[in-house]
Design a protein that fits this description.
53% helix, 0% strand
């Protein structure tokens, strides 16, 4: 089960959906986002990618559920997103990235990566909601 990159969908408004039970705009919301960002950045700040991955498994134990390839992709995307967010001082995109990867790990834990896929014989048009 692969992961779809979150870069294109990481917008300010989306961060509210990442932590719906505790996110609110303003100082309190920023503290939660920055706390997660600080954990991610400190875990990957030094060392080789192998060390970065090992360091990430402590604050984010769900990483162990990802395949080796997905773990490497996670580290690369997290480092890139953290650097980009740090350069502008906004960390919502980092929170979205962490949430997307955690959701992938939850899907794997639920066995969704092992379920057989039922392909439709032809596309089915769907009207607007």
């Amino acid at each position: 089960m692969g992961h779809t990159s979150t870069k294109a969908g990481a917008i300010d408004g989306l961060a509210a959906g990442v932590y719906p039970d505790r996110f609110e705009y303003g100082v309190q919301g920023e503290r939660h986002v920055l706390a997660d960002a600080a954990g991610a950045i400190s875990a990957v700040a030094c060392g080789s990618s192998a060390n970065q991955l090992a360091n990430l498994k402590e604050p984010y134990p769900w990483v162990r559920l990802l395949s080796s390839k997905d773990q490497q992709e996670f580290v690369a995307e997290l480092v890139e997103t953290a650097a980009a967010c740090g350069s502008i001082g906004r960390f919502e995109a980092l929170a979205v990235t962490l949430k997307a990867w955690r959701d992938s790990a939850e899907a794997i834990a639920a066995g969704w990566d092992k379920s057989p896929l039922d392909w439709l014989p032809a596309p089915i048009p769907v009207g607007r909601p």
